[in-house]
Amino acid sequence: MDFKLILQKLLTAFEKEGIRYALLGGMALGAWGVPRGTVDIDFLVHNDDMKKVDGIMRGLGYECKYRSENVSQYLSPLKVFGEVDFLHAFRTHSLSMLQRTEEKKMFDGTISIKVLKVEDLIGFKLQGMVNDESRKSLDLSDIESLLAANKKNVDWILIKEYFDLFNCTGIFDKLREKYADD
Questions:
Q1: Hey, which CATH number is domain 3-116, 3.40.50.2300, 2.30.180.10, 3.30.460.40, 3.30.365.10?
Q2: CA 35 to CA 110: how far, in whole Å?
Q3: Strand-strand pairing, 21-24 and 102-106
C-alpha cells in the first residue's frame, strides 16, 4: 500500500468536500513519535460526512466491504490502494475528539494532516483493550509508548476521564505514577 499516495488523494478530496476528519490508528501513533507498523489507514470522520466519504472512496475505486452504525471499511482491488477504515463520529466523546485535532506533518513534512490528540488516541486504545481482551497487551503497550514520548504535554485530566469511563482507574493510577512529571 502506498500510504503517501493514498493520503494525498484522500486529503485533497476531504478538503474539497469539507470532510471533518482525524487520523487515528497506527499512522497517528507515528505522527506522535511512536512508530508502529500498520497495514491500513484509519480515520475518525463526522457521521454526517460519511455519504460524501462514500462517494470519494467509490470514486477512487474502493469497494465498501463492511458498514455498521460505527464503522465503514473500504478495500481497493488494487494492492497499491489497500484498505481504509472510517470510524463514525456521532457520540459526544468522538465529536469532541474531532474538535481537538492537531495538524501534524508526515512524510518528511510533505503532508499536513489532522491527527487525534495523544489523549484521544489513548481513549481509543483503552476502548479497544476493554472491548477485546486479546488486544490488551498491544493496546497497553501503545498507550505507554504514547505517554513516554509525549508525557510533558498530555492532559492528565482528559486521560483520566477515559479511564473512568471504562472503569480502569487502577491502570490510570499506575500510568500516572510512572509517566507524570508533577
A1: 3.30.460.40
A2: 18
A3: unpaired
Residue 133: count of CB within 10 angstroms of its CB: 8
Cell numbers found for residue 119: 489523549
Question: Mind listing the pLDDT tens digit for each residue in 24-47?
Answer: 999 999 999 998 877 899 999 999
Check pLDDT > 90 for residue 14: yes
Q: How confident is the model at residue 182 (pLDDT cuts 50, 70, 90)?
A: low
Does the pTM surpass 0.85? The reply is yes
Note the helical H segments in 111-152: 118-131, 136-150
Query: Are the C-beta atoms of 46 and 66 separated by less than 8 Å?
Result: no
Residue at 157: amino acid letter: I
Sheet bearing 71-75, strands edge to edge: 63-67, 71-75, 83-89, 40-46, 21-24, 111-115, 102-106
Identify which of 62, 55, 117, 54 has the alpha carbon closest to the alpha carbon of residue 88: 54
Q: Cell for 176? A: 500516572
CB of 17 within 8 A of CB of 56? yes
